[in-house]
Every structure is written in C-alpha cells, then in structure tokens.
Amino acid sequence: MTKIGYEDAVNEALERLDDLGYERGAQGDLANHGPMGAETLAVLGHADKVAAWVEGYRTAMPHHEPPAARFALDASDESSWRPALGAFERAGDWERLFVRELAEAPWRTVLARWWPELLPGLLAGLTHGAIRTAHAVRSIAASREPSSRQLTELARALAYWAARYTRLPGEPRLRGGHDIAGAVAALPRLRGEEAVTPAVARGRFTRLDAMPGYFEALDAVAPNEAQWLLSEMTAEFAGVYLAHDEIYAVPMVHAVTAPAAVRLVLPHLPVELHEPSVAALWQVHTAFLLAFTRDRRGEQEAIAAATDSDLPSFDELSARAVEHGDEHVIKFTEACLREHMLRPDRRFPAAAFAALSRIDPR
Q1: DSSP letter assigned to residue 247
Q2: In this predicted model, what pLDDT tens digit does every residue of 316-332 receive, in sequence order?
Q3: Computed from CA positions of residues 126, 202, 212, 297, in that sequence, does the dihedral angle turn out positive or negative?
C-alpha cells in the first residue's frame, strides 16, 4: 500500500469537504473546521487518518447552506466591497471576488492586498477567518504547485473573514511600556463568581468600550520584534487557558491558535504588515480576557500546579489528540507543539493536556 503524503491528503480532504457551508450548529454561527482540522492532522504526520476523520467530521454536526452569490463585488472599487464587510449574507459574493482575484494574480499578491483590509476585523468568527486563512496558506506554501482546490480554500477562508468581519472599539498600537505578561497583569478584570457562558461572553463583548482599562490596554504593549511578541502571547495565553476552567471549554484555545496561525502567514506578507498584525491580535486578546475570564485570583497557583506536574511528551499528546478527534483539540495541540518548539515553555504541554479533558471527544 502506498503511504499517502501531506499534499495528497490535504487535496483529497478539500474534495470531500467541498460541499460544506461556512458554518454549522444550532445557532448557525460555529465555523466550519473541516479544512483546518484535516490540514492539521496531515501536519502532525497522520495523513493516513485524514480521510476517516473527514467522514466523521461531516456526520458529527450539520453544516448550513452557504449564502448564495447575489451581487458582484468590484475589488477596484472600494465603494463596492467595503459596505459588504461584516455582511454574512454576502459571503457568496466575497467568495466569487477572491476566486477571481486568485485566478488573476499570484496568491501572495492577493494575500498582501487584502490582509490589511481585513485585519481590523480580526475577531471575525472568533478569529476563525484568520485561522482558516493561515491553514490554507500553510498548505499552499508547502505544495509544489497549488491546486485549484487549495486556491479555492484560500478564497473561502478570506471570504469567511470578510463576511464575518467584526471590528472592535479603539485602535491598537504598540507604543506602551509592557511586555505581554505585564500588559495582561495591568488589565483590570471583572470580579464575580458567575460562570462564563456564551450569553455572558456575548454581553461582555457588546460593552467592551465601557469596561475599565480596555482602551488603556490597547496602548500598553511595548514595540518589539513581531516573532518575539507572538511567542510571548502564545505562552502567556496558554497559561491563561490553564488558569481559567470557569470558561466554557473552547473559546480561549483561540488565544493560542490565532497568534500561532498569524505566525504562519507573516513570512508571506510585507514586513510593514507584521507590527499591525501583532497589534490587532493584542486587541483581540484584550477582548478575550475581558469577555471570557473572571479576575486573576488563583491564576499563578493554578498555572504552577499544572506545569509542575508530570506531563506527557508532545508525541503522546499528539497521539492522544488524534484519538480524541475533536478539531479544537487537534488544532490546539499542534499549535502548542509548534510554539513550544520555537520557545520551550511548560505552559504549552500543560495547556494541551488540559484541553484533552476539558473538551468532549468526538
């Protein structure tokens, strides 16, 4: 039997997932994780398991029909496309625009053209627009020649980002005096004992501009090299994930997977877009802290207890994540592994280990 490789596994997965819509679930706003999960499995060295995982994913939860294309968007006319940012009903129009753009120009040119336009709406789909884009970019960059399915996946990832574009209040700038850990420590947190349910989090997101410390936090982080700040961010928020089990299980994994995903894209972007990308991530992380966590009581003790315990190796954690099957666990484990390899920190394996028990297996 011929062993399937990364590129073939990704393309076969994209073919099997081609008919799924952008979102799924009873509320209709859970992002389609199929392409991201399949690509991550292949990266982890489990290309031979991608096909079975995809079939299981397809049947686990129904996906909604994607919005049909309605009115063409003209990339050269800002008055045509800008009003469609954040309009999910225009997702089909956005997909057609990006398919056309990618047919007419190199993919890196298209990415660099649209990245700064979409960056202010980074929260889109709880950052899944940017994360899906990063997985598509990684698969294209790793291929000898991008397939039509890989380019279509990049078009859909960008389209989802544009259609769910969500702008947060304020303008983030790296002009403060704190590293990431210091900025996190300086942010006032909400007190209280309430569990952070989806409804509670949604309510907090709507009143960020009234929360003490929010606007000050946007200017709190000191400028530094983008790759270093991304490592500070992923390590710090792996610790935040460990310390806050009052959060319903999934949201805060994105505080690690989003910056880890942006790291995948930065090498393909002009250097002048690196700092704004990190600043936008910090704004999203500030919002995550205020929306999804309670105060800092017990944080350091919880992190110390988790990181001082015996932890499985990342080989074992990866194997357990694949067996677990949930797409968030798979993506989170791979992101923690990749970040740990760049800058070792026990918060990464501890967070990946915690996710295995906090998130239900599929």
Answers
A1: B
A2: 999 999 999 999 999 99
A3: negative
- Using one digit for the tens of pLDDT, what is the confidence trace for 250-306? 999 999 999 999 999 999 999 999 999 999 999 999 999 999 998 888 899 999 999
Question: What does the DSSP 8-state code read for residue 28?
Answer: S
Q: How many other CB atoms are there within 10 angstroms of residue 199's CB atom?
A: 8
- Please give the structure tokens belonging to residue 131: 């994360």
Packing angle, helices 226-243 and 327-342, rounded to 10: 130
Taking a C-beta distance cutoff of 8 angstroms, is the pair 4, 41 a contact?
A: no
**Triad 43, 353, 244: Cα angle to 5°:** 120
**23: which DSSP letter?**
E
91-111 pLDDT tens trace = 999 999 999 999 999 999 999
Query: Are the beta carbons of 320 and 356 closer than 8 angstroms?
Result: yes
Helix 148-163 vs helix 6-16: crossing angle, to nearest 10: 60
- Look at the block and give the residue holding tokens 């400028």: 223
Cα angle 103, 106, 108; round to 5: 130
The tokens for 110 are 């298209």
Assess contact for 239 and 354: CB atoms under 8 A.
Answer: no
Handedness of CA 127, 237, 262, 76 (dihedral sign): positive
Tokens of 351: 């967070």
Which residues on adjacent β-strands are paired with residue 221? 178
Taking the CA atoms of residue 303, residue 307, residue 312 and residue 313 in that order, the dihedral angle to the nearest 10 degrees is 110
